[in-house]
## 1
Amino acid sequence: MSSFSPAGARARRKWRSHGLTGWFWSHRVAIAIAVAAFFGLSTLYVAWALKDLPDPNVNVLAAGDIVFLDRHGQVIEDWSPAGHYHVNLTLAQMGSYGPSAVLAAEDRNFYHHGAIDLPSTLRALWVDVTNRGLNEGGSTITQQLVKIQLLTPEKSVPRKVHEMVLAIALEQRFSKDQILTMYLNRVYFGHGAYGLGAAARTYFNKEAKDLTPAQAAFLAGLIQAPTAYDPVLHFDLTKQREEYVLDGMVSTGALTRQQADTAAAEDVKKEMHIQASARQSKAPHFVDYVLTQLEKLFGSAAIQQGGLVVHTTLDLGLQAVADQAVKQGVRDLHWAYINNAALLAADPKNGEILAWVGSADFNNDSIGGQYDVVTAERQPGSSFKPYVYEAALRDHKITLATILKDEQTSFNGYTPHDFDNRGMGPIPARKALLFSRNIPAVEVGQMEGMNNVINLAHDMGINSHLDPGLSTAIGGSDVTLLEHVQGYEVFANQGQRVDLNEITRVDDSHNNPVYQRTSMNNRNILTPAEAYLITDVLKNYQNQWGFGWNRQMASKTGTSDNGHGQIPDSWIMAYNANIVVGTWVGNTAPNGGGGTILAFGERVGSTLMAHFINNLPANMSGWYSQPSGILHGCGGSEIFLAGTERMCPSPSPSPSPSPSPSESPSVLPSGLPSPTPILSPSPSPTPT
């Protein structure tokens, strides 16, 4: 007997025609077609994408170009495949240590998980969510191969999905050994070397199979960020990565702990002999710095894959002037044992870097030319003093008329001296800064409090660690030229800090923007009146010390001391309303060390810096009008911040003779006697 009943049929028809289920039922044909189309299109997409994947038995094609353009669209450098070095090897030809080290560095469980390492991916996702951004973490070697061979460097959720789909398809098509072989032949190790074979020859002049465990770990550690871990520039960071990889090789069973410890003690730096590059670049150090920023923006895959056009802020016209000034300055100062120099210039209004010369000769190994002095920490000497005076002026601890004591003084046991071991007696703060006297600068630092000075310097752009001791007031703590120019940018921009920047836009190979600088990070650090006080003093520096410049600039020199009365570094910083520039000179050696020199900062001002400033465009001559908040006080011509105009010196000092300017008013913290040749040009001594 049938169980059918009219009531049951009506209930089923009602269930099908109402609610979400009813909607699906009524559209079941269209939904089935859509699902089939989705899977069909997905299959076609995967098949289309994989057609470009290299066969493991065929020579892997190197990356596409990365073209760097200056602000006017002129080519700074073209990283083309023709300029890159590549050696195609089988896995067996790579030996055991190289592949094991790369696995330890990049994917320790490569042979034990699928195309996606789910726990690592979830951890990376958690970091993305908590940091509200997308990073490159959690990727397997299979995913990395997809990134550098098939996808753009864009960071987005759809791109991550594409990466996972292609990685899964890749592991369906190739074995783990084949995927690892492709990766090891394709991944970028820096210095133009693509693949493990090229890296072994480039860095150690040997075959990959002959790498020691230490050398293999050293190379594997570069993959994460080849520019940021460049051993020429950042060997200490590279060594840390090497030790991390060696630990990983122990955990994966590739090495015993004893073998890893022996490898860690190996002197890889001494064994490294990077092969000369045929690189053609009009600003190689600048390009290297931009590459580190690309690695931060997109991950190292952006460098490995290429296919990018990078629009930068550099001005190749000014770059040529800077490069020539550095080279000529080094020649002028050869008598002082100077063999190297660096220069950085930027637009103070928007922070855009205009010229970047990291050494006198990039290809000169005898001076370590590939080492970028712009990003190296050095003692700034007296060029640090404007931060000290600015902090005290801003906080109303002193005025430019305040009388300071330039005489031998013990500051709780610290007794600074000047290069001449003499004092000028009681002098106003303006004169103390103009003549760059050390003892008054330390006095001001003590009055203000060095922690306050350091806080202001950090706010203005000095990111390096500054010791709170009083010697920092006269340049006893290291800074980089990059951050020093950032600090002076605040003076040049009338108290407003705009972070130095170098990239305006990045396009992919189809001219689609993958990065666009949207805004500048502006912060008011000083008022225009506060900044103007320092500028008003430093505008007279070039005349006081006879630099021979053809336009008005505010400037300050610096000369460091090694504690034995010898000079490792000489500096000069300069600015006007259109440009802020800093330069350093010294003596460097291939290993990053070097000797001492004889030239004070003032010699740099009348040679190297003069060559640069006197060849700037005529329109880079802007100067400042006196801002509101500046008053005259104490019945004289001195200027004061509003509210301090009645802080008159009492009693007034008796006039003291002004010493004739000697070679340098710059800092020599040890206070040992130093040569004081006259400022006017004289025959240069011949080095012995």
## 2
Amino acid sequence: MNKKMKIVVIGGSGLIGKKLVNNLRQQGHEIVAASPSSGVNTLTGEGLAEALAGAQVVVDVSNSPSFTFIPKRGALYQWESEDNAAMEFFETSGRNLLAAEAAAGVGHHVALSIVGTDRLQESGYFRAKMAQENLIKASTIPYTIVRATQFFEFVGGIAQSGTVGETVHLSPALMQPMASDDVANALAEVTLGAPVQGIVEIAGPERVRLDELVGRFLRTTNDLREVVTDVQARYFGLVLNNQSLVPGDNPRIGPTFFEDWLNRSIPQQRATKKAAAAPTPTRPSPQKIAPALLLLACGIGFAVLAVTRASALDLDDKSKVTLVYEHVLPNVAGKSIKGVLVEYKPGGSSPAHTHPKSAFIYATVLSGAIRSQVNDGPVKVYRAGESFSEMPGDHHGVSANASETEPARLLAVFVVDTKEKNLTMNDTK
């Protein structure tokens, strides 16, 4: 299929969607990047008919917006996911999209799925992905399902999901991850080809153990956490084996090796051994503080809604900080606790700043994803339900929304001197 086509990319504002849209546009095709922000909502059906009118191909790379995993309190290896929300999203979205495609006469439906979906049905999320695949197979529209392995870009998130204190507990199961650029390129080839009426698997060029892969990532980014190999460690709620995350026979192989991706994507993280060996203060375990902060977040929900405009500080037109509560700690003389809600619009950020020398800070991402850098450490991405801490006097070089298309919210809990009024001191350099 070399002629110019109209192609609709559902989820066109996401990581893969953006790359795919750019790839196909460069090849001269008419591309509609469809997402709720552009007025196309597959859950409600809003804008679907208009977007699909005259389209030859639809590519669905969307994902459930409520896809998060939250650790259960007191259980190191037990996780619970928003199973019902994921199932509702993929079934409702899938039915609406396929019905609209049938009405518009679309000739090829392409969907991005995950290698191992059929083997990971213990997870509600993978059951939802399987339901999506089954809807596609049962429809009358010619289709190709592309199952991809894990992306290099999510290795940091995998490390965070297994973090307990200064250690990262991970399975030694095999995987074959790939670069998101290679995923988008493979999707473009499938999109411009004929429907295969089946599944195409795509993977990276290297088969590697999960614990080894994350260890290489941590060393490259000068992250001092230690990887602990544990065959019972959960991968977003699942116990893995060597077949769980690897493709079957004859997958399409992307060209990018992990080391090449690291060298290209995080060159600034390859600092000297001296920086890696520098002593760092011991920080509280994110896993230990997360449950308390999540409960705290739930407890102040109504307070957040009731906060007046006078208690909010606009950092710029895309971010806002609101003091949602404050009280003196009765058993700790001279200390108070303050809860601060930071809201980022898409692409929003906070200025670089330094916290008071009396302030201990525990932060939890409530929604979206946050990029954060403390002192001269690596820039890390924390997603909904994940936590991090900051010590007295820490410099916050980066605090920003990791997404250009979705909002994000962060709850920061300060334990600080009661007399301290300024929780941050913005850099004036």
